[in-house]
Amino acid sequence: MDGSWSIGKRRFKIQKDFLAEVAQVINVGMAGPMMGIIQYGDEPVTEISLRTYSTSRDVKSAIDKIVQKGGLSNVGE
C-alpha cells in the first residue's frame, strides 16, 4: 500500500478500508488464503506478514492499526 505523503490521509484511509474489505471477502484463514501487506514510501515496511494472522477479523484489526509512514513514492526500491 502507498504510505507516501502524496496520497494524503483520506486516500490512505481508503486503501486501509479496501484492504480490510478484501480480507473479509477472501475469508483469510490458515487453511485458505493468507494476506500480507507492505507499505511503501521512503522505505518499504512489512506491515502484515503472510502467516501472522489466521482470521479475517485479526487481519482487519491489524489493518486498522497501520499508520501512514510518509515519505516519497519510491515504489521501485
Mean pLDDT: 91
Major sheet, described briefly? 2 strands, antiparallel
SS summary, helix count: 2
Strand content: 5-15%
Please count the beta strands (DSSP E, at least 2 residues each): 2
Distance N to C terminus: 14 Å
Helix proportion: 25-40%
Report the structural category: alpha+beta
Shape, per Cα inertia axes = elongated
How would you spell out the order of helices and strands?
HEEH
Indicate the radius of gyration in whole angstroms: 13 Å
Give unreliable regions as ranges.
Answer: none
Instruction: Order the strands across the largest sheet as they lie in space.
Output: 1-2
Please explain how this structure is put together:
- Residues 1-77 form the VWFA domain.
- InterPro entries: ECM_Assembly_Org, VWF_A, vWFA_dom_sf.
- It holds the Pfam family VWA.
- This is VWFA domain-containing protein.
- The protein is of the alpha+beta class and 77 residues long.
- It is 36% helix and 9% strand.
- It has helices at residues 8-26, 56-64; strands at residues 37-39, 45-48.
- The chain has a two-stranded antiparallel sheet.
- It is elongated and about 35 Å long.
